Amino acid sequence: MSIELLYFAETLVRVMNYSDRRVEVTEAAWRVIVREGLDRTSMRAIAQELGSSTGVVTHYFRDKDELMLFALERVFEKLFKDMEASAQGRQGLERLEQIILAALPTSAEGVPGWQVWIAFLGYAIGRENLVQEHRKRYDSLYQMICQELADLQAAKLIRDDLDLTLEANALIALVDGIGTGVVINPKQFLKEQQQYLVRRYLNTLLATF
Question: How open is the CA angle 136-140-145, to the nearest 5 degrees?
Fold first, then answer.
């Protein structure tokens, strides 16, 4: 192996290890947030969860805000991957339905992500940089849903008179409301109830012939 290739390989390994360690720190932060609440989630508490010193955590993240921002990115990465995977091989209104359901905590595995997400929203208040980051991700979600609605409208599967901007915002609000409801009162928002609420709303969009 040439010196240049060896150097590249070593650099790549260092970058991958660095990235993996950041993910480990983030996952430790998630566990602390879900268990203790974000207000009690300190760099020290995360270090204890990780079984390391505070210096290890601050080596990868300068402060709590930087760590929260990275964790937020991970939440949305998983969200968009799940939504894209759910759309594969599906068409029409079923495709949009599955995309929306993929964003919801229809199983116990999805609840911690929503707990972390809601905690982030509260933490972002008064921190304009974090508010802007939240807004960017909401905008990405909005664009995705708008495109799905536009495709359905072009295919004459939903009504021509719909304002797609309002409908996309309504769907996002529906997802936020259901997700928050699951965290606060899970017995009222079982998987079947979540599916029913999504389908009931989508049925209002249907084109009539």
Answer: 145
* Angle in degrees, CA 89, 106, 29, rounded to 5: 110
pLDDT digits (tens, 9 = 90+) for 119-160: 888 878 888 888 888 888 889 999 999 999 999 999 999 999
Give the tens place of pLDDT for each residue, 174-202.
999 999 999 999 999 999 999 999 999 99
Using H for helix, E for strand and C for coil, what is the string for 135-152? Answer: HHHHHHHHHHHHHHHHHH
Return residue ranges of the chain for CATH 1.10.10.
1-61
Q: What CATH number should be reported for the domain whose range is 1-61?
A: 1.10.10
User: Which pLDDT score, from 0 to 100, does residue 78 have?
Assistant: 85
39-65 core/surface letters (b: 16 or more CB in 10 A; e: else): eebebebbbebbebeeebbbebbeebe
Does the model's pTM come out above 0.70?
A: yes
**Do residues 152 and 158 lie in contact, with contact meaning Cβ atoms separated by under 8 Å?**
yes
CATH topology for the 65-209 domain: Tetracycline Repressor; domain 2 (1.10.357)
Q: How confident is the model at residue 46 (pLDDT cuts 50, 70, 90)?
A: confident
Cβ-contact 43, 64 below 8 angstroms: yes
Q: What angle do CA 185, 190, 195 make, to 5 degrees?
A: 125
92 pLDDT higher than 70? yes
Cβ neighbours of residue 208 under 8 Å, at least 6 residues apart? 159
